[in-house]
Batch of 4 targets.
Target 1
Amino acid sequence: MKKTCLQILLVLLAFTAVARDGANDGIISITSLSPADMLFEVDGRQYPFNNNSLTLRNITAGYHQVKVYVKKPKTLPGPQTMIYSKNVYVKPKYYVDIVINRFNRALIDEQQIVDNRYDTDDRNNQNNATVPNIKDPRYNNFPRNNNNTAPRAIDDVTFASFMETIKHESFDDSRMAIARSGIDQNYFTAAQAKQLISLFSFESSKLEIAKYMYGKITDPKNYFIVYNAFTFSKSKEELGEYIRNYK
């Protein structure tokens, strides 16, 4: 009997070691578009926002309690105001992205981590909490995955979800913030770029996002199709000049 119990215990320990080797760890990121100061809490541990964003890596698969608070000034009594509380399920090797919009409404999306794209975004790990730097990684050499092949564009289902998230925003500036976040984490075809650019109301916003996306396009030779998203020739000329000088 003792021998059987010992064998079971060894199997459980071996399974635990495999489960905790980090191979299936995920990522939770949160971005706030609200002008209010926020406080982020996951599994009882609190993290202050830095530049209204935070990324937590090495998240084990499973449910994690996520809470977001609006910080009160120290001079005001009482607890912080909680605006979001949910048990977020992180699938093995998945990136979970939570966006708090300007109306303090939370939008959540997820995407499978299929390569190291989320570990090459110029971020520094600090005690499992990562705060993005302001450097623009789009001007690095065109990234390659572990097989030294060009990265694949975002799949159609995820792209449709990404588009719907942007559509829910009423203003170009909030749409821009969400779009930039998604662009930083994915690659796109020229056709997808045209669809995304067309979501913006103002010509200046379309031009800004068209420039921002160019470094994340898998078929840049087809990028000419995005010119149809613009109304004015001046915008097309400025984008063309940007592409010619892009490094």
Target 2
Amino acid sequence: MNEWTRDWGLQVRMLGTLFFLALVYFVFIAVLAYIGVSSFVLVIVVTIVLLLQYFFSDRLVLASMGARIVSEQEEPHLYEIMTRLCVIAGISRPGIAIVDRAVPNAFATGRNTKKSIIAVTTGLLSMLSQDELEAVLAHELSHVKNRDVMIITLASLISTAAFYVFRNFFLYSHSGSRNGKENFWFIIPIMAAGVWVVSFLLIKALSRYREFSADRGSAVLTGKPAQLVSALRKISGQMERIPTTDLREVEGMNAFFIIPAISGSSIIALFSTHPSVEQRVKALEQIEREMSGHGL
């Protein structure tokens, strides 16, 4: 009998990611305050943005993808699968959204297990079998149960904010003159670049681990890791045939997708937030051996 166990590795990584991101971000704010930028204004702005992100991030993500929340009457098949998986997972059933896009993919969004949405594209629905679709939905449901969706969303916000400041640092270049610290204006882009780099590395590390964890969660919930292997291979193979323009339209969601919307030959793949399909397949095959009693 395979039971769901808390992934302490993921929990530690999520807490560590938030701690180090908060640390470098507050250091950045302190430096900006030192050279003359109003720390009070910065703190107020950041607090408001974080609150808005916390309460409305799911709506923003769904809107950015053009996702439409569907009722149980509209998609009884998807809700039937989700209901069964949620009983096994022991959590409230998320809402379901459909994205009318050819790019085959799925993602989860929401701030907690009771306020979450799992979205799938029409491209995904048209290419997967019943068991493969269930495996993908179980993967996304694992993200919800692990509570890693909001963590990655907040981490991405901090990274984006640092990049925005780096790109627009000239707006603050004269703000330190009132305190006689005009010679230190160059610290702003340097610090912002540092925050962005650290954020990127932490997000990449967390995101890769959380995909392995969600893959394992899918295997536990369905008892069929081979079906997720099949689904990953199908999605990855189909991604190669999607026009580049279509991939670029959704690339901002890559950290959330089950497989990033990039071409395998693209240089962007080097900076992917996901482990390779080959690595995930290898891990799932090991899980299947463990489940069948033929582990190490």
Target 3
Amino acid sequence: MDRILEQSDTLFKLFEYSAARWHGRPMASYIDGTQAYTYSSFQEKVLKMSVLLARHHVYGGKVAILAENCPNWTVAFFASAALGRVAVPILPASSQMEVSNILDHSESEALFVSARQLRKVEEGLRKKMKLIVDIDTLGVLSAQNDGETEQNRKVTVRNAAPQPNDLAVIIYTSGTSGSPKGVMLSHGNLIHSILEAWHAQKAGYRDR
């Protein structure tokens, strides 16, 4: 294994390493070729979404993701967890009550959501969100401000790199219809699992 990869102890470092090492390689896409990313274009899109979040005053808070599996889900996750925020994934099979409980309990400030899942987000919770993004198009569905102040135009995304012990993701398990319980995972937790998986199951150019 590349020594630099072994030293990637946060999602941010892994993100930077992968974009540099595999920049021209396919990263993810639908089978029909839509929502297709190379590692380089993925990096560009993630940074763009991070700037969008910052422009709407979502700097280091919780960002919920309520959507089916898709390449843009990964964009939402890395724009959140890898760049100084905390991702809050919500299973698309969750009920409206479970979605409400998780959004409220996690104190999520922003939401990436698919068109199919949007109906599960109560109007009151929508109004509390600083930003809601359509995960299919990555367009803004609603926002509390226009995101175009002079101060926000100067936002950068590389000055808030997380540390290994920083919280990266909160994963909610069973029981969310009652008292929500979130499993809190750090960057170090996730990187350890990623590297162990890499050792356990090698992947090459032909793998998908």
Target 4
Amino acid sequence: MSERKGFRDVKVIITGSTGMVGRGVLLECLDDDRVVAVLAVNRRPLDIQHPRLTEIILNDFGNPGPIRDELKGYDACFFCMGVSSVGMDEKGYTRLTYHLTTCFADVLKELNPGMVFNYVSGAGTDSTEQGRLMWARVKGRTENTLLKMGFRDAYMFRPGIILPERGIRSRTGWVQGLLTVMRPFFPLLGKFKSVTTTSKIGRAMINAVYFPQEMKRLKGPAINALAGM
């Protein structure tokens, strides 16, 4: 796979880096010499300091206007922010998943038309937007809209089982409880091609900026393959 022309050292925006996946992506970016600057846009502060890291708190992703000027000049966005659909109706989940994501992406597209946009979706997302599962329809609609926005490139990451690495924990209580129970089986689970890790997702997102992929919706095996490039 040939390297994408026009990219050397890149500046990236990461959302959701206080969550399990986003934190894994952030740590990989800070460790990768190709990433010369990281802007973390979160709803709550991080506990990480790094010379290449800048942090901005944005309470309403549906209105990124107050930080508009700070969003200029970036090569990629790794959008890792998301919420669980448990206990939510479709209207509320659509607002937090579809509207906030696309509003933020709209501003980035206007400011950085040559950007690569990577979105953390999920296994089972429904691209037809017509399926039985509410969350899958909403995620599918979000994916479809992002892919049509006209970014230089865009990838929808659809991980299934994600194993946390580097001491990362989930902020969702039931998820962390499940991970704790499963931890003795991590070495076995890691042998399955469909299973990925927080570190591999981070490396794959960075590599997606440099190595264009024919597939735009990446499941576990494709994520792992891209991480190893």
